[in-house]
TrEMBL record:
The keyword Metal-binding does not apply. SUPFAM superfamilies: CheY-like (SSF52172), Homeodomain-like (SSF46689), P-loop containing nucleoside triphosphate hydrolases (SSF52540). This is Sigma-54 dependent transcriptional regulator. Signal peptide: none annotated. CDD domains: AAA. GO terms for biological process: phosphorelay signal transduction system; regulation of DNA-templated transcription. The lineage of its organism: Bacteria, Pseudomonadati, Pseudomonadota, Gammaproteobacteria, Chromatiales. It comes from Candidatus Thiodiazotropha lotti. InterPro entries: AAA+_ATPase, AAA_lid_NorR, CheY-like_superfamily, Homeodomain-like_sf, HTH_Fis, P-loop_NTPase, Sig_transdc_resp-reg_receiver, Sigma_54_int. Residues 19-133 form the Response regulatory domain.
Length: 463
């Protein structure tokens, strides 16, 4: 931990998961600040104008923007307002000349983090960036480890991951806050579709109303109509009482229909009517019941192919697919593996009261080399098992035995070989994904450039 000599605020030194965007049109200053951030091993990118800044923000992986107030195609004030509207969760520090301090103070009152007055000492600049990144990190850990996790889980929390793909999804969710449109979530099993559905609901105007979850694949075909729409007393044999269905239970809120591809054609017709007419009839009932419910559906099936084989109705598909969110598998966003694993360890140790400090470097390298066909769900299970079984201060590679690691090979004589092979695979993959750029590969692996160079030399990996 670094301590700020000005206000004694502890600074989290593990800031490699966060990215800074510099917006400065003075070439010398921009390059100097960017180089110094890289020297401090803080991921950073730098641009000279607002248009370029917006393009970088659209990538979805920016956590902190440091911008000059005067830019060639606008002002830092305009950029701040744009960020506040379209990129919630991204913090802003302003660089201002002496005569513009009043503007900077006004923006800080409006939500900007801080400001720097030119000329400033570069060490003061680094100190501010580290302090604010640390506070962002602490805030996000508080959010994701809160007992009221779902209610505090907001866009920008980083709960979904640090990859640009997941940050883009968080930004999209933020823009859906005032919308009531139906949403279709697609992606492999375990990628986090239900987590995204919860985020959409909790960030909407319906957040105070219930969110009812329905696993369509788990409902009996003979009872699914009654489960969804309810039934009247005496509607069928065994209907001894009136039943309120899931749609009515979700009144004023959201209904989440997971595995929507599994519902039968006759239920698809009834769901289409619900979406078109916004009303239902209980089984055995005659009076329509008006609904005020948002529908979020999810599937791991390619519905377009199901439409081609007449297994799924095209008209229902287009009613559900007003907003489409496709969640990529974990293997396509490997930078999320260690990031999420650390969050899971922190969450689980807090809940269990465990004294485990975290993951060892060997454990992280082994996780980085795994394929995780079960995606985030599998990763969380692996971490939960490791936390439960680990009896050391740090979770080691041997605590992460899974089907991908033959337990017969995890012995005192072959553990080092397993770790070295995992390191070699992880390094080669990181280099390939980052066009052999050492600094980017090091950031992906969560180690320093010097450490990466040493490991490449040890394993005879060419640049």
């Amino acid at each position: 931990m670094i301590v700020n000599s000005l206000d004694k605020t502890p600074i989290n030194n593990d800031l490699k998961a966060y990215c800074v965007l510099l917006v400065e049109d003075d070439d010398i200053m921009r390059l100097s600040l960017e180089d110094r951030l890289h020297l401090e091993e803080i991921p950073a990118r730098a641009v000279s104008d607002m248009a370029s800044a917006r393009r970088e923000l659209e990538k979805g992986d920016i956590d902190l923007v440091v911008t000059d107030i005067r830019l060639p195609d606008g002002t830092g004030i305009e950029l701040f307002k744009d960020i506040s509207c379209h990129f919630p969760g991204v913090s802003v520090i302003l660089i201002t000349a002496y005569g513009e301090i009043a503007d900077a103070v006004t923006l800080v009152k409006a939500g900007a983090l801080d400001y720097l007055t030119k000329p400033f000492d570069i060490s003061n600049f680094i100190q501010k960036v580290e302090r604010h990144l640390s506070r962002i990190a602490d805030t996000r850990l508080t959010l994701v480890n809160s007992d009221a996790e779902e209610k505090q889980f907001k866009p920008g929390s980083g709960r979904l991951g640090k990859s640009s793909a997941m940050r883009r999804i968080e930004r999209l969710v933020a823009r859906l806050g005032g919308s009531d449109s139906s949403v279709l979530l697609t992606g492999e099993s375990g990628v986090g579709k239900e987590v995204v559905a919860s985020l959409i609901h909790n960030n909407s105007l319906r957040a105070k109303a219930p969110m009812i979850r329905v696993n369509c694949a788990a409902l009996s075909p003979s009872l699914i109509e009654s489960e969804l729409f309810g039934h009247e007393k005496g509607a069928f044999t065994g209907a001894m009482h009136q039943r309120i269905g899931r749609f009515e239970q979700a009144q004023g809120g959201t209904i989440f229909l997971d595995e929507i591809a599994e519902v039968s054609p006759d239920i698809q017709v009834k769901l289409l009517r619900v979406l078109q007419e916004r009303e239902i009839e209980r089984v055995g009932g005659v009076e329509p019941i008006t609904l005020d419910v948002r529908v979020i559906a999810a599937t791991q099936v390619n519905l377009k192919k199901s439409i081609e084989t007449s297994e799924f109705r095209s008209d229902l598909y287009w009613r559900l697919n007003v907003i489409h969110v496709d969640i990529p598998p974990l293997r396509e966003r490997r930078e999320d593996i260690i990031y999420l694993a650390r969050l899971f360890v922190s969450d689980l140790t807090k809940k269990s009261g465990s004294s485990i400090k975290g993951l060892s470097k060997e454990a992280e390298l082994l996780l980085q080399a795994m394929t995780f066909p079960g995606n985030v769900r599998e990763l969380k299970n692996v971490i939960e098992r490791a936390v439960a079984l680990c009896d050391a201060p740090w979770i080691g590679a041997i605590d992460l035995q899974t089907q991908e690691i033959d337990s017969r090979e995890i012995t005192t004589t072959t553990l080092r070989q397993s770790i070295e092979e995992a390191e070699r695979k992880a390094i080669n993959k990181a280099l390939a994904e980052n066009n052999r750029k050492i600094n980017l590969a090091a950031d992906t692996l969560g180690i320093s450039r010097k450490n990466l160079w040493e490991k490449m030399k040890r394993y005879e990996i060419e640049k």
